[in-house]
Design goal:
There is one protein chain. This protein is mainly α. Helix content is 66%, strand content 0%. It is built from 8 helices and no strands. Helix 1 crosses helix 8, helix 5 runs antiparallel to helix 6 and helix 6 runs antiparallel to helix 7. The longest helix is centred in the middle third of the chain and has 33 residues. One fe (ii) ion binds next to helix 6 and helix 7.
Amino acid sequence: MSLETTLVRDIAIGRPGATAVFRRHKIDFCCNGAAPLADAAERRGVNLAALVQELENLAAAKGAAPTEPEALIDHILERYHEVHRREFPEAIRMAKRVEAVHREKPACPSGLADHLTLMFEELESHHQKEELMLFPMMRAGGVQMTGLPIQRMMTEHEIVGEQLETLAELTTDFIPPSGACTTWRALYQACQKLDEDLREHMHLENNVLFPQFAPPV
Ligand SMILES: [Fe+2]
Ligand SMILES: [Fe+2]
């Protein structure tokens, strides 16, 4: 099968480094990953031949996440859940400061602190459902469990995907205005990291972990 007709999510799973390429081109590989590469590229107005070349040039696997469920769950908890818990409060603090100090400027990201706070609160409740219910069921070998808890998590991931679109709009795609102060620049960098981590996190759950328990319909 050629890369052009391969589903975006399968490329993201099978080709280490592909997720970074997709992020750069704003191709959604987590919630809308069930599209062939050619369709996803067209939707984003990306040159398909150049994109295929970029994916083919990726170096061999290095530092890929584990795929075995126990190890993958440990990796998700340590690399994503705990990291989001550390990084969101700091981003919220910076957003409040930037919004207070620069509220007169047209480029001021008004509403960013509130948006980040909403995302963090909803994410925390989502994490708790995974940590207290879903992951323990998986660790106990719950292959025969219904797909409903997984479906619910995937629906919540879609909402996070929409919230990330709003985050990009509020921060003009994470590009601070020229002459922005250090906190403003650090804030947008932190928001971009949150975006990248959340997309990787949801991709690992949607496309690598969950299908081992309830195959996608
Ligand atoms: Fe998670
Ligand atoms: Fe999740």
